[in-house]
Design brief:
Length: 141
Amino acid sequence: MFILITSIALILSIIIPGAVFILSGLSGNKVKTVLGINIFSFFSILIVATIVLFSGDVSASGNAAAAADAAGNGLAYLAAALVTGMATIGAGIAVAAASSAALGAISEDPKIMGKALIFVALAEGIALYGLLVTFSILNRI
């Protein structure tokens, strides 16, 4: 029941500020305020839900070792999701910067296309390293 309520709260923390943004046609500093409220509400609900979920009564489950293992698995899944998400966001930012600079350089001198592609591929490697760490975390479970 708790997981259902938490899921609904997390979904609403994304939908409600998004609907307010779309319906009101905000611009400028108001967009930053709505985005800040959205991010704050989402992560605060996520943190509270994680604390409540993993601070339950261990004796109620009957087996303390099984409850600790389940909590560890849950945190491992959370860590894997965070690693994947942050690595792909970082790779997206790096690829955007590297590819735009590469296109500008190629337009001036077409001979350096190979060198420019190497820099774009290096930026793409960030996401692959994130996936390797994710697989390492999930392999532990």
